[in-house]
Amino acid sequence: MCVSWSILYLDGSLTPQWPEFRGQRQKAYSETVVGRPVHESMEYTGRSVLPWFGAFRPDQISVQDCKAYIADRKQTGIQDGTIWTQLGKLRTCLNWAEKTGLIERAPYIERPSKPAPKERYLTREEIAQILAVDCAPHIKLAIRLMLSTAARVTAVLELTWDRVNFERDQINLRTGEGQRKGRAIVPMTQSLRAALMEARRAALSNYVVEWAGGPVKSIKKGFKAAAVDAGLSDASPHVLRHTAAVHMAEAGIPMDEIAQYLGHSDSRITASTYARYSPEHLRKAASALEFG
To answer: Which residues contact 209 (CB under 8 A, 6 or more apart)?
Structure first.
């Protein structure tokens, strides 16, 4: 059986033109990921992917179609990393459709090469610079949370006070939906504890990072302004998570512990990115090459 890509995807904006598809359930894949971060990101990706692939049956998608999509995206200034992610989500949906029997076989989805991981992270001097910036309290608190918990910005903005345990000095970055991507239960540092206690006294809502008595959807503009004021115009919120992991690795923290902080289910994923920052990385191997 073949079904239109738009049936598998999220927004259902393209209605299948073939009579045999009419009345079939739209947003099939979407219903399996409701409440997870991927739900929102897939819907956003659909705005780019659907105009190209929405009218195809899966068996009609060819490598040339994928290459044409890649060329078009690049021409509009989209980076390889974004294109790689977009086509990866297309592939995820189609593979899911094959596994669940909606289609007989998922087509091969050609993607550009995955870019190398970004190396940018903040030194201790740069961390001091951004923490010293005079910015809105919720921006400063979000920055400190990301640096001290290695959390993604989404996890920080979704953090509520009921998951901040001052008695145990722990922060639960998970939600009631279970362990979501990159979420863990981590201890508080003393400096973060002091910042959180001050924020708790002034809190007007159950959200740790709040503005005008309510949750904050994005700190993109506020963070950018703070980074520019600190002389770190190339920094982004994700750089703070990377920074936390690098500094743990440089301190010789074992990869499995860093993996727990980052919410990685497999420490090999952590090691593939951060092992090279450890002072012990390949040290034993290097000792075998001491010939002088």
So the answer is: 138, 141, 142, 145, 156, 157, 159, 215, 216, 219
